[in-house]
Amino acid sequence: MWTCQFWFMTVNKRVVPIITVKSIEAERRNHAEVLGLVELMNHGWIVTFADVSGAHQVFLMTRDPTAPVNPQASIQGDNVDAAYATACARGLEIMDELQDEPWGVRRFFFREASGNIINVLSHLG
User: Which segments constitute the Glyoxalase/fosfomycin resistance/dioxygenase domain (predicted)?
Assistant: First the structure.
């Protein structure tokens, strides 16, 4: 009898929605002034906005520079390699292969059954 072993990643950091926008500058005031969010990080193509505690976040993204598509959510955990192995074993459609990015994360994207693209990551180091 054949069995398949699955490895799991513990989501212990954050789950963040990603909103694709034409211009971060055009949306900045909406998130800051209307929603009362503060900017935590800005790479030019992606910005993190959060409440004052930093616990509740949203990303605005123009175009991911190293991926073929923009994801709709980002899920950060402790073992992205385990999540990738399980995604592959389950036959999920991998939209962006597991790789280390220059901004300090190891990540991959998969397409869920509804068509949404999910960015799964762990921070390096």
Answer: 46-119
Taking the whole predicted model, whether its pTM rises above 0.70 is answered as: yes
Q: Is residue 3 part of a domain?
A: no
Radius of gyration of the chain (CA): 16
In a domain, 54, yes or no: yes
Q: Is residue 45 part of a domain?
A: yes
End-to-end Cα separation, the chain, in angstroms: 40
Does residue 99 fall inside a structural domain? yes
CB 21 within 8 A of CB 88: no
Q: What is the CATH number of the domain that holds 35?
A: 3.10.180.10
What residues form DSSP beta bridges with 109?
A: 96, 119
